[in-house]
Amino acid sequence: LGDLYSDWSERLLKCMADVEAVIDFGEDENIAESLLQRASSHLHNLSTEISSHLSDKRCGERLRSGVHIAIVGAPNVGKSTLLNYLCQRPAAIVSPQAGTTRDVLDCTLNLSGYPIVLSDTAGLRETEDPVEQEGVHSIQVKRALTADWLD
Binning pLDDT at 50, 70 and 90, where does residue 80 land? Predict the structure, then answer.
């Protein structure tokens, strides 16, 4: 997107330069008219491209709000360790005891300019602990089903 926006900016600057040239040196009618026609044509094309880009039916919303990635799997396979590694900080408790993560833990990252929301989830397993059951069966499963990507 950065390249696209830079291209639009350059093209807009060229149109502005043409219009400013007409204002500053518009004595020659032939030059003035051709520069204005060229600027008008380029502006119309640019406007069409930008309008098309903005009418993407909110597909660009994903880039604005972030791609949601849920880290799911069995207990004690390294989901929280992976989250901590990617976040480059101890965001999640890591323990050899199964069931340490009982709620969803989100960490927002910037990956080459794109927002990423990583969600660490409880290990998917059958358990008798009612608190862990709530974490696994309602919150974690819902988060996994709404994620853009599961890892």
Answer: confident
